[in-house]
Specification:
- By secondary structure, this protein is of the alpha/beta class.
- The chain has 35 helices and 35 strands.
- The strands form nine sheets. Strands 2-5-6-7-8-9-10-11 form an eight-stranded parallel β-barrel, surrounded by seven helices. Strands 27-28-29-26-25-31-32 form a seven-stranded mixed β-sheet, sandwiched between helices. It has a six-stranded mixed β-sheet with strand order 22-21-20-23-24-34, with helices on both faces.
- Helix 24 crosses helix 25 and helix 25 packs parallel to helix 26.
- The chain is globular and about 100 Å long.
């Protein structure tokens, strides 16, 4: 095996010596597994079992994640049994006996629940320094007796409401005030309270900057900066007033650049420029971290006063890797743990060798990593003020004491808070403790000392980036965390705005044609802004288009599939090149916020590429040969295809329907929704440039009530593909079924007709995830998605808590012009829709209680999001599709009732469930009557190939868009049988 090691440094020998010394101090007496066997504590047993069995590790940690949400011993026992009795889990004998009870209410079940819950709670408080401030202060006092400094972190991952953001801000201030007051009574400890003859702050807090604004988003960089900056300044002022130092944590990669930018700007302001009691954090697992550190060094030189850089390896590796894979983005973190270790050592040296500009806080539990920092600090005689070592509470106790014994200042990172908000933190610590690559685990297993202190090595055979391994490579959305991409997107919106008001003509028989009638397309955010003027064809022109398609059909059906597929792939390339432009046109014509526009462009590109590949797969047909007879099964196109597309996905849906029809060999007419015809014209231009032959594709904007209805009934039209309302879809189905004079075929109709989509929230749900998912699913694009959530069905035991958080989350949304970066909820499509939705709201207020209703800005077709609680399953707002930002909340007694209510409409399109109860998830998968079911995530945003989209019942007819069956609807199958015998002779394979 070829390996690559980190570069040697002048500090290697000293690093090895110090590492041996530290390692000796941290080693347990007696073997690790012998020690575990001797212990009877369940918290230690749980960790030991998790390390020895990967399947158990996954299920056990999932159970621990769910545990704080469970409200009784019976629930705990039931969930314990459900999680740990799956086929892929091999249980230790003691655990097998513990969960072999007959029911959660049994005595044995109660004992099991108490035993495991107590063990998990004990385990949690190994890593959490206290539930309350008084307990934290007691912890801090114990640390100080061991000559260990501290920093306190407030537990909690998700701030999803402005109320929560305000609460976090106030708790940080309270934390500083309380710690500073307590510190007045503490005896001075020179090793941690002073350095180089200067006093150091005795108290320090660690702050999450994103906790100050619930809508913090890199896409709205300026808005996010404006909202958090004042609170950062107030924290810094309060820090100075109380004498408590403040350190800013680093969180997910998507926020990194914006966090660093905000802090750099504020800390250059005259009021804060001389502060040295402030810190920032860098994560060595990020590939960009060396450039970030160099940037901080250059910035610190300009500033003139050092700040502390806490160097850590990073705690979100799984999330960052999965997120990158799902979006097909470059993996921002190193794929190899050894690469992170190498980078950490490189950054440690860079940081410490620039100690006159930046102070260092080296955060690691790896003995070699800390030994290197010691070696550099001691070799360079770095003043004590400029370097300290850090460990996490409960993770490196012996290492901390050993480092302190060497005379270094050591700070312990102490999270505090209740178990529920701290559960994700606990899971990360458990993962770190039990991972095969974890230094802590390797040390506990008494790996050879030379192995543990050796320089990290890269395996050259391991890929640099985590492989995707997906059968279909989806287009990548824009990563708006990248400033260059973000700036270009908004610049393009401004450029496209200068092109508004142009005219767009139909494309018939290979040329643009004039029309007698036109329609103006308006910006729903500002109806005085004309996006474009579109020519509307007449019935005579519609007949001409059909005749042209009929004449072109023979040539197109005979065009090789490879050529047809090539045109689709060229169209996809053009869409990718024009991504920002297409985003801007959608934003302005239909009022869709930028990020959602971008996802739609990706979907359109995916449709082109996916259907191209699918048609290439289908063209080979199937052979069913037997001796003496050849049987061939293959497909042929249907003929003339009419596409009637909607306005709510003005690019993706018409693209998908149109290119599926074209690649199958059908001559295709695209009649878009009138209010989104400009975007459809942009699509038409792309298809024309991609090489679609004359007459094969025609762009025919027109009135649905006249031209659309006429074409549906036209005798030469073979199939109609429609997305829109149930009323229109059913009318198309009726009209298409009627034979016209001279018609020699039955028309095929594909119709997607919306839904009344519900999400179930059960008693075990992660409410942070559930609230965020419901808000996005209900109010993304103002609820104008056929997949949008319009009903949320909540079990009684969590109803009040959920509604309270949901209400505040909705109240925190920004409603306004879609072209403003901070907008989450834009306008509805037009005045007619606005009036219809308002009528439903008036009815809903009679059917339930308004929990929250946001105001509607003017001008523009705005409807403020509204949540109505106490709604009965039979109410109109719980049964009828509204297509707007209106959410009905229904309370149910148990999961059986939840499923009954969820299935109690005429629709079956999308649905979701938030649950950590395996049996509930299994039942939802089996019994929830929807075409697309989403578990523990939002219910919108289906992705081609991964989540083929479509429903049943009155949600529509036809197979799923973006799936392996979709093209079959545009084809007719044929079977050909040939007798290959001649006078009793036929070739028989192998006979000779």
């Amino acid at each position: 095996m070829v390996t690559q090691t980190s570069n040697s440094t002048p500090y290697d020998a000293k690093t090895q010596d110090i590492a041996r010394e530290l390692l000796a101090a941290t080693r347990e007496t007696g073997g690790f597994f012998a020690k575990v066997r001797e212990q009877m504590r369940w918290d230690d047993k749980l960790l030991d079992w998790a390390m020895g069995n990967p399947g158990l590790r996954v299920q056990l940690f999932r159970f621990i994640d769910c545990l704080p949400a469970l409200r009784s011993k019976a629930e705990i026992a039931r969930h314990l049994q459900e999680y740990l009795t799956t086929e892929d889990v091999e249980l230790p004998e003691a655990l097998k006996k513990l969960i072999s009870f007959s029911g959660g209410d049994s005595v044995a079940g109660q004992v099991a629940a108490t035993t495991v819950a107590t063990g998990v709670e004990t385990l949690a408080y190994k890593y959490i320094s206290g539930e309350t401030l008084p307990k934290v202060i007691e912890t801090v006092k114990r640390l100080r007796k061991d000559k260990l400094a501290f920093t306190i972190d407030l537990l909690g991952e998700a701030v999803i409401t402005e109320q929560e953001a305000q609460r976090y801000f106030e708790r940080y201030r309270e934390l500083m005030t309380t710690l500073a007051a307590a510190a007045q009574d503490w005896r001075a400890i020179p090793q941690i309270d002073e350095a180089d003859g200067e006093p150091l702050p005795r108290a320090q807090v660690s702050v999450k900057l994103t906790a100050f604004y619930s809508q913090f988003n890199a896409l709205d960089a300026q808005g996010s900066e404006d909202r958090v900056s004042d609170r950062v300044r107030e924290i810094l002022r309060h820090s100075q007033a109380t004498g408590a130092a403040v350190h800013f944590d680093m969180e997910q990669y998507e926020y990194k650049d914006l966090i660093l930018s905000i802090l750099k700007k504020i800390l250059l302001e005259p009021e804060f420029r001389d502060r040295s009691d402030v810190g920032v954090t860098l994560q060595a697992y990020l590939r960009e971290s060396e450039a970030d550190l160099q940037g901080l060094i250059d910035w610190a030189k300009e500033r003139g006063t050092p700040v502390t850089v806490r160097l850590v390896k990073g705690a979100y590796w799984d999330r960052e890797t999965i997120r990158a894979q799902q979006h097909d983005w470059p993996q921002p973190v190193y794929n190899d743990k050894a690469a992170t270790d190498i980078n950490f050592e490189r950054l440690t040296r860079l940081l410490l060798e620039h100690h006159e500009y930046l102070y260092a806080a080296i955060g690691s539990h790896n003995v070699r990593s800390q030994a290197l920092a010691c070696a550099i600090a001691e070799s360079l005689n770095i003043p004590r003020r400029r370097v300290e070592m850090q460990v996490l509470y409960g993770m490196g106790d012996k290492l901390a004491k050993a480092l302190a014994k060497r005379g270094h200042r050591v700070r312990v990172y102490c999270p505090y808070g209740e178990l529920l908000p701290g559960m994700s933190y606990l899971i990360r610590r458990l993962l770190e403790n039990t991972a095969n690559s974890s230094f802590l685990r390797q040390n506990l297993e008494n790996r050879p000392i030379e192995e543990l202190i050796a320089p990290p090595q890269l395996d050259a055979e391991k890929p640099e980036f985590a492989p995707l391994g997906l059968p279909f490579a989806n287009a990548s959305d824009c990563d708006y965390a990248q400033a260059e991409i973000r700036d270009r997107a908004w610049e393009t919106v401004s450029q496209v705005r200068q092109q508004l008001g142009q005219s767009y003509q139909p494309w018939l028989n290979g040329e643009f044609v004039q029309t007698q009638e036109t329609a103006q397309s308006l910006n729903p955010s500002n109806p005085e802004e004309v996006v474009g003027t579109v020519g509307l064809i007449s019935i005579e022109q519609a007949d001409e288009a059909v005749a042209t398609a009929k004449a072109a059909f023979t040539g197109w059906r005979q065009t090789p599939v490879a050529e047809r597929a090539g045109i689709l792939r060229k169209a996809a390339e053009l869409m990718e090149q024009r991504r920002h432009e297409l985003n801007a046109w959608m934003l302005l014509e239909v009022g869709k916020p930028l990020a959602e526009c971008d996802g739609e462009v990706s979907e359109a590109i995916d449709f082109c590429r996916y259907y191209a590949s699918e048609m290439e797969r289908l063209q080979t047909g199937t052979a069913y040969d037997i001796p003496g007879e050849n049987n061939r099964y293959h497909y042929q196109p249907r003929g003339i295809s009419l596409i009637i597309s909607p306005w709510n996905f003005p690019l993706a849906i018409p693209t998908g329907m149109t290119v599926a029809s074209l690649v199958a060999g059908n001559c295709t007419l695209l009649k878009p929704a009138e209010v989104s015809s400009v975007i459809a014209a942009k699509l038409a231009q792309i298809l024309i440039e991609a090489g679609i032959p004359k007459g094969v594709f025609q762009f025919i904007p027109g009135k649905g009530s006249t031209v659309g209805a006429h074409l549906v009934k036209h005798r030469d039209v073979h199939m109609i593909t429609f997305t829109g309302s149930q009323e229109v879809g059913c009318q198309i189905y009726r009209d298409a079924a009627m034979l016209q004079p001279g018609q020699k075929h039955l028309k095929r109709v594909i119709a997607e007709m919306g839904g009344k989509n519900g999400i179930i929230i059960d008693e075990s749900a992660d409410l942070d995830e559930a609230v965020a998912g419901v808000v996005q699913s209900a109010f993304g694009y103002s609820g104008q998605k056929c997949s949008a959530c319009s009903r949320v069905i909540v079990l009684e035991s969590v109803y009040e808590t959920f509604v309270d958080r949901l209400t505040e989350a909705v109240r925190s949304l920004n409603v306004g012009d879609a072209s403003k970066p901070g907008t989450q909820v834009g306008p509805v499509i037009d005045a007619k829709a606005q009036q219809r939705i308002r009528e439903y709201i008036a009815q809903g207020k009679q059917e339930g209680t308004v929990a929250v209703e946001l105001s509607s800005p003017e001008p523009g077709y705005f409807v403020g999001p509204i949540v109505i609680t106490g709604v009965t399953p039979e109410a109109a707002i719980a049964q009828e599709e509204i297509f707007g930002p209106v959410l009905a909340v229904l309370k149910v007694a148990d999961f059986d009732e939840a499923l009954a209510v969820a299935n109690g409409t005429n629709y079956a399109l999308t649905g979701g469930i938030y649950s950590r109860t395996p049996s509930h998830i299994d039942r939802a998968m089996a019994e929830f009557e929807v075409g697309n079911l989403y578990v523990n995530r939002g219910i919108t945003g289906a992705i081609v190939s991964r989540q083929p989209f479509g429903g049943f019942k009155l949600s529509g007819v036809g197979s799923k868009a973006g799936g392996p069956d979709y093209l079959l609807q545009f084809l007719e199958p044929r079977t050909m049988t040939e007798n290959i015998q001649r006078h009793g002779f036929a070739p028989i394979e192998g006979a000779e």
